[in-house]
UniProtKB/TrEMBL annotation:
Annotated InterPro entries: Biofilm_reg_signaling, EAL_dom, EAL_sf, GGDEF_dom, Nucleotide_cyclase, PAC, PAS, PAS-assoc_C
Domain GGDEF residue range list: 518-651
An individual GO BP term: cellular response to nitric oxide
Catalytic activity as recorded in UniProt: 3',3'-c-di-GMP + H2O = 5'-phosphoguanylyl(3'->5')guanosine + H(+)
PANTHER family: BIOFILM ARCHITECTURE MAINTENANCE PROTEIN MBAA, DIGUANYLATE CYCLASE DGCP
NCBIfam families assigned to the protein according to its UniProt record, in alphabetical order: GGDEF, sensory_box
Domain EAL: start-end pairs: 660-914
GO molecular-function terms, A-Z: cyclic-guanylate-specific phosphodiesterase activity
The name this protein goes by in its record: cyclic-guanylate-specific phosphodiesterase
Organism per entry: Xanthomonas indica
Length: 929
């Protein structure tokens, strides 16, 4: 019941005593007149009255005359009215009692009416004339005489909706169907306002045939009561709608009588009907076991503490799924502390529980998807810049989950990213479209993170406008992109620009130089001997050497200069804005000096040099490829000049570069065209004239060009890859020729062939050597391979397997040009070497330089100490032979005894020697030179 309605009822100065009862007959309130009459205040006092009147009221009657016992044995006459809602349902009862005056009969009736200030009327029916009292006039706002017209004059003053009801009530009373005439209707006051009137009366005189002659009655002002009733209905309607919309029902419980009252919405919420609404014990049986125990515990606590409670219960519905209800309970306590009644509300939260569970599941799923996809989100209020983050957003930024403001978050970002983000917010706030940005920040740990950010403005739902921002961690994608960029434009080993990027940078620099008229030069740098070092010490050492060389050279250049790795051991430098052309040579010499410092690798001390070609950008040479060709040609000229030097491009350099390209081109297919041949130089015992071995030496006769110097074409063959196939041919041909000599009875022990490091690295080389010997009828034990020191420096598993097969098959190994290569002698113990060959440079100087003579002496002693024989190359005089014989050298090779000879001439030479000193152990040694 609305408290405002009750308060208005209590305070209104009605002349009738008025009591408000609820639908069960419980007194809710009484006005001052009712309190003065001391009307009953208990439900029992009205129980009999309501039982007698309920059926008639439920049948449609709205008001019944009734009698109540008053104080001191007085009888109180009154009227019981039903208050209904808009749908006709019973809301409450009002009981009105006129104040009694103690007179009898008709006089008592009139006096009672007057004392109660009712408007009195007296209707002469045959003449249709009505007399109205002063009270009646005042009630309707008339001043002076009221009209004495009858019913026909009164009807136009009655509200159109009420006229038929008035006629029907009068007709029923005239016909004797009602003991008392009574009707409620709206009557127009003199000021034009409609006023609710309760019109009551009786026929007091009839004709002999029973026709009514006179009727007396009263008009009672019930306007305020009607307004209160309407307010009550309105409030009840609003309450019912509020409960329906919130799915919340009302209930009350009388603990003493164990009576439970439930609102319609309560029944709808719980799925029960009014006939099935149970008592409190019945409600307990509908609850689940846990909810039952919980409710009993709550009631006991409420009985002790008389405090309100808020709890949830589960309502069991047989085979249907249970309902989850939220219950509020408010006890009403009497003066003695006992609970008189418990009022409350109940709300069906089953769908809410299901929705909450679904939301939790979706939230958890979203969190998992966000974590898997590394996607976080946040909202930023446009005006306040207040921000809310998701859990994944905290994880992406490497922050603890706590309150964070926008400025604190942006402090993690780089300045460029902060500026881009703030600018995007401004554009979007001014009506721009959503934007996507790639931003960079550093976590508190220092880790760099890239995020892709999508920003849009959300102005829906009537909330303050806010930015919705999605963050996606794209660090791996960005790093992969950067790595792809690095792979595409930078050398991974040195970090320098690669050939493609260098070309782009150089072409731009050349364009700028032409525009400004400045001098530009290109330096082509080739590391001398790097391939041998890489082969000898391994790729790890070679890579370290390249990185060190790149670092040393970079330190000598200006920030404006361009520097990149072109390929392998080749680098390109572009010098911009040179004051003089000679400055390029100065820079080149600085680079050579920087590379001259030795590199330590384990026990080895490695020295490298550089050959540098210099080309100036001049008229006719203003494109990158042309300048590069010129610098490359100049570099080869530097190598030919002795290496570890620089050379400017010139016409002569161009000719030499063209010569080199010509030789390289001619080498391809020369073997198939049978342009190669072998010559042989014998080796002689230092103690006698016998020749124990011959060395096979390669010669190339180019048709139309004559003989090509081996020192010129063999390095080119190594660089262009022809040396492997050519070397196999040399070994096979030497074995074939040696077998032919041996079959002809010529006496010698071995034939030797020079082998390059590139041949040793070639997969299957050892197996091919054995197969070539067998194919050409020559024993591997009579084949000697001459290797350079650089070829033996690299200790690899493949080299070990190669030498193991050679040792197993008896192939002999000799170290050629000993003393001119690397200073590490450890390889002499690692590999099965049988001979050392003293380089010709030592032999030529030993007669004139005592230091050199000591070197040759030391080499002989070292070889003998290791159980090896020692051979001297390039011996041309008797004096050189005598000194070497004195030092203990085992074999002599040189022009003193024979120049390299074609096969037929060597056969004649051997026959001549054989007549002097017959051979005893024919073997053949193969050496690559």
């Amino acid at each position: 019941m609305d408290q405002g309605v009750i308060a208005s009822l209590l305070q209104h100065p009605l002349t009738s005593a008025l009591v408000l009862l609820d639908a069960d007959g419980r007194p809710l309130a009484a006005n001052r007149a009712a309190q003065a009459l001391e009307l009953p205040r208990t439900v029992e006092a009205y129980a009999e009255l309501l039982r007698a009147a309920r059926e008639r009221l439920l049948g449609g009657e709205t008001m019944l005359a009734c009698a109540l016992p008053g104080t001191a044995g007085r009888r109180l006459d009154g009227w019981l009215r039903a208050v209904r809602d808009d749908s006709g349902g019973l809301l409450a009862y009002t009981l009105s009692v006129p104040e009694p005056v103690g007179s009898d009969g008709a006089t008592r009736w009139e006096i009672a009416l007057d004392s109660a200030e009712h408007g009195l009327w007296d209707w002469d029916i045959p003449s249709d004339t009505i007399f109205r009292s002063e009270r009646w006039k005042r009630m309707l706002g008339y001043a002076g005489d009221a009209p004495a017209d009858g019913l026909n004059a009164l009807l136009p003053l009655v509200h159109g909706d009420d006229q038929e009801r008035l006629r029907q009530a009068i007709r029923s009373h005239f016909e004797g169907r009602t003991e008392t005439y009574m009707c409620e209707f709206r009557l127009r006051r003199q000021d034009g306002q409609w006023h609710w009137i309760l019109d009551r009366g009786r026929i007091v005189a009839r004709t002999a045939d029973g026709s009514p002659l006179r009727m007396i009655g009263t008009h009672t002002d019930i306007h305020e009561q009607k307004l209160l009733e309407q307010r009550l209905r309105d409030q009840q309607t609003l309450l019912r709608e509020a409960q329906r919309m919130t799915r919340m029902g009302s209930w009350s419980w009388d603990p003493l009588g164990d009576r439970v009252w439930c609102s319609r919405e309560f029944l709808r919420v719980t799925g029960l009907d009014e006939q099935r609404a149970p008592s409190s014990r019945g409600w307990l049986r509908l609850l689940s076991r846990d909810s039952r125990a919980q409710l009993i515990s709550i009631w006991r606590r409420m009985a002790r503490e008389a405090k309100p409670a808020n709890f949830e219960v589960e309502l069991v519905r047989g085979s249907e799924s249970p309902l989850h209800l939220r219950v509020w309970a408010q006890p009403q306590v009497e003066a003695d502390g006992h609970i008189q009644r418990v009022l409350g509300q109940v709300q069906n939260i089953t769908e809410q529980r299901q929705t909450d569970a679904l939301i939790r599941w979706r939230t958890e799923l979203l969190n998992r998807v966000s974590a898997l996809g590394k996607i976080g989100g946040c909202e930023i209020e446009v005006g306040t810049r207040r921000m809310q983050w998701t859990e994944e957003c905290y994880r992406i930024h490497g922050l603890r989950k706590e309150a964070i403001d926008l400025d604190h978050a942006l402090a993690l970002y780089t300045q460029d990213s902060r500026d881009a983000f703030e600018s995007a917010l401004v554009r979007i706030a001014e009506g721009g479209l959503p934007e996507q940005l790639d931003l960079c920040f550093h976590r508190p740990s220092g880790q760099r993170i890239w995020v892709q950010v999508l920003i849009e403005l959300d102005e829906r739902d009537g909330l303050p406008p806010r930015f919705v921002v999605l963050f996606r961690d794209i660090t791996r994608e960005r790093e992969a992109s950067e790595r792809i960029e690095l792979l595409a434009h930078y050398d991974l080993l040195t970090g320098l620009p690669n050939r493609q990027l260098l070309r782009e940078q150089a072409e731009k620099a050349m364009h700028d130089a032409v525009e400004r008229g400045t001098t530009l030069a290109m330096l082509f740098v080739d590391l001398d001997g790097f391939k041998s070092i890489n082969d000898s010490f391994g790729h790890a050492t070679g890579d370290a050497l390249l990185k060190l060389a790149a670092t040393r050279m970079h330190q000598q250049l200006r920030t404006s200069d361009l520097f990149g790795r072109f390929s392998g051991d080749e680098f390109v430098v572009v010098l911009r804005d040179l004051a003089e052309p000679g400055d390029a040579g100065h820079v080149a010499r600085k680079l050579i000096a920087a590379l001259a410092e030795p590199l330590h690798s384990g026990e080895n001390v490695i020295k490298i040099g550089a050959s540098i070609g210099i080309a100036l950008m001049e008229e006719g040479r203003q494109d990158f490829d042309g300048l590069l060709r010129a610098a490359d040609a100049a570099m080869y000229a530097a190598k030919e000049s002795g290496r570890n030097t620089c050379h400017y491009y010139s016409q002569d350099v161009l000719l030499r570069a063209q010569r080199r390209l010509e030789i390289e081109h001619a080498l391809h297919g020369a073997l198939d065209r049978e342009e190669f041949s072998l010559v042989y130089q014998p080796l002689v015992h230092a103690a006698g004239e016998r020749a124990p071995a011959v060395e096979a030496l390669l010669r190339w006769h180019r048709p139309g060009h004559g003989h090509c110097n081996p020192a010129e074409f063999i390095p080119i063959a190594e660089e262009c890859g022809e040396i492997v196939r050519l070397g196999d041919w040399v070994i096979g041909e030497a074995c074939r020729q040696a077998a032919a000599w041996d079959a002809a009875g010529l006496s010698f022990d071995r034939v030797s062939v020079n082998v390059s490091a590139m041949q040793l690295r070639d997969r299957g080389f050892a197996e091919r050597v054995i197969e070539l010997c067998q194919r050409n009828g020559w024993s591997p034990k009579r084949l000697e391979l001459e290797l350079t020191e650089s070829a033996l420096i690299r200790d690899s598993e493949s080299l070990r397997r190669c030498f193991e097969l050679f040792e197993q098959e008896g192939v002999l190994l000799a170290v050629d040009d000993f003393g001119t290569g690397f200073s590490n002698l450890h390889y002499l113990n690692r590999f099965p070497v049988q001979r050392l060959k003293i380089d010709r440079s030592f032999v030529q100087d030993m007669l004139h330089d005592s230091g050199t003579a000591k070197v040759t002496q030391a080499i002989v002693q070292l070889g003998h100490a290791l159980g090896m024989q020692v051979v001297a190359e390039g011996v041309e005089t008797v004096q050189e032979e005598a000194l070497l014989r004195e030092q203990g050298c085992d074999e002599i090779q040189g022009y003193l005894h024979s120049r390299p000879l074609p096969p037929r001439e060597l056969a004649a030479w051997l026959r001549a020697r054989q007549q002097v000193a017959p051979a005893t152990h024919p073997r053949l040694v193969l050496a690559a030179q």
